Amino acid sequence: MSLIEQKLRDLGLELPVAPPPVGFYVPVTRTGNLVITSGQLPFVGREIAFAGKLGADLHEAEGRDAAQICILNALAQIKTIVGSLDKITRVIRLEGFVHSAPGFQNQPQVLNGASELLVQLFGEPGKHVRNAIGVAEMPLNAATQIALWVEVA
Amino acid sequence: MSLIEQKLRDLGLELPVAPPPVGFYVPVTRTGNLVITSGQLPFVGREIAFAGKLGADLHEAEGRDAAQICILNALAQIKTIVGSLDKITRVIRLEGFVHSAPGFQNQPQVLNGASELLVQLFGEPGKHVRNAIGVAEMPLNAATQIALWVEVA
Amino acid sequence: MSLIEQKLRDLGLELPVAPPPVGFYVPVTRTGNLVITSGQLPFVGREIAFAGKLGADLHEAEGRDAAQICILNALAQIKTIVGSLDKITRVIRLEGFVHSAPGFQNQPQVLNGASELLVQLFGEPGKHVRNAIGVAEMPLNAATQIALWVEVA
User: Fold this and answer.
1) Closest partner residue to A26 among B105, B128, B133, by Cβ?
2) Rounded CA gap, A126 and A116, in Å?
3) A101-148: per-residue pLDDT in tens?
4) Which of A90, B142, B145, C107 could form a disulfide with B97 if both were Cys (CB 3.0 to 4.6 A apart)?
5) Quick one: closest CA in C to A34, which residue?
6) Which residues lie below 8 Å from residue A63, measured CB to CB, with a gap of 6+?
7) How far apart are CA C96 and CA B44, in angstroms?
8) Residue A91: inside a domain, yes or no?
């Protein structure tokens, strides 16, 4: 088991099976030293674990959990093409889209559920740049969608 | 005529004249081996071919057509700086924004109109990662906006 | 003082102190020759200078000013890791998100406030690709959010 997966386990988390894409594309690709995922939704198995809009259907804490699940799925995707999460040398970027009801402005707090996990797992090299966007509509009514960029050796 | 343009013709499609930008920027750029377009709108000539929101003004099939036009325009832009579409070795990423009425959640199905064309044209190397985002407002009321990343030799 | 900062001064503008991130991430990173910022908000000091939605709370001219402030903040972030803005060889990409009231479709005009400044400062190498997206909700109610990509030698 990789060091990163051990750290996940120590946090009480587990790398899921990488979810299949919901359309005619691939879930992860590599260009040069960059590995980039498709926008990940908060799938647990075949179900969206958190559906609805932040600020109406979901509380901020649920949004944080949704964002964390997106990251677990993103890491699972990355593992499928690099073999081991220990090959990740740095996290580069997180593109975060938060399904937001009118007036909800705490997209950063929701996405911290994702960003904090990355720093817990990877330490200083887990720190990344981020976009935090509130969107009105989301595939499958998902609470969050996150694309992740990492650098590999 | 390039192989890719011949394939387009076989599909009954044609590479358009690359539309000019609607602002103070360029439609396509290259950095290293990556060629990245600006967000392309469904222009046919000087007109937006599909205006309005999916789920209110437009049916899903029209959204698919809009997404396909965005890709034709993106390929036309890419041709202006690489010379021939046959120089594209892989499609890397599609950033898809779908103009969505409240409750519309089929952004992936709409964007499949773009993704499927890329795979028809480029085969396995046409498969790409994708973000699928529903947005409430769009420049010129366009149905879709797509930025495309490809790798060249 | 760098050449670019002198040009800023000639335009009556000044590079601000780089604003701290509003979440658990970093404001700027480098991968290869690319330097990419987090989504920048129109902070002036610790205040969002332009809050609200274009087309309801704010006029287009205010949106342009907000977009320009985002670029000043992005350049300040970039300076913190490359040392001098004169090390920027090209501007690659601007990802622009405009906080938009229903029916507002002039996202490109708003973002031209950012794009024009980049071309004034960097000339031809300041020209970049761009996404122009209208979003319904924004962190801290900010009028605009912009992520900037530049190339360094």
Assistant:
1) B128
2) 9
3) 999 999 999 999 999 999 999 999 999 999 999 999 999 999 999 999
4) B145
5) C31
6) A50, A54, A98, A106, A109, A110, A113, A143, A144
7) 24
8) yes
Are C25 and A94 in contact (CB < 8 Å)?
yes
ipTM attached to this prediction: 0.95
Q: What is the pLDDT of residue B22?
A: 75
- Within a domain: A27: no
Residue B130 is nearest to which of A23, A136, A138, comparing CB atoms? Answer: A23
Would you say B100 and A137 are in contact if contact means Cβ atoms under 8 Å apart?
yes
> What is the structure's pLDDT at C21?
82
Which of A22, A24, A77 to mutate to probe the B interface, most B CBs <10 Å? Answer: A24
For residue B38, the chain C residues in CB contact (below 8 A) are 129-131
Inter-chain contact A24–B115, Cβ cutoff 8 Å?
yes
Subunits in contact with chain A (3 or more CB pairs closer than 8 Å): B, C
Count of domains for chain B: 1
Binary contact (A136, B135; C-beta < 8 A): yes
A21 lies in a domain? no
Largest Cα–Cα separation, chain B? 44
A108: chain C residues, CB-CB within 8 Å: 22-23, 139
The reported pLDDT for the residue numbered B85 is 97
Q: Is C97 among the domain residues?
A: yes
Residue A1: pLDDT band with limits 50, 70, 90? confident
Q: How far apart are CA A41 and CA A140, in angstroms?
A: 9
Low-confidence ranges of chain B (pLDDT < 70): none
What is the phi/psi pair of residue B138, to 5°?
Answer: -140, 145
Q: Is C75 helix (H, G, I), strand (E, B) or coil?
A: helix
Q: How confident is the model at residue C24 (pLDDT cuts 50, 70, 90)?
A: confident
CA C16 distance to own-chain centroid: 12
CB contact under 8 A, C107 and B31: no
CATH number at residue B106: 3.30.1330.40
Q: Which residues of C touch B145 (CB under 8 A)?
A: 131-133
Query: What range does the domain containing C73 cover?
Result: 3-12+29-152
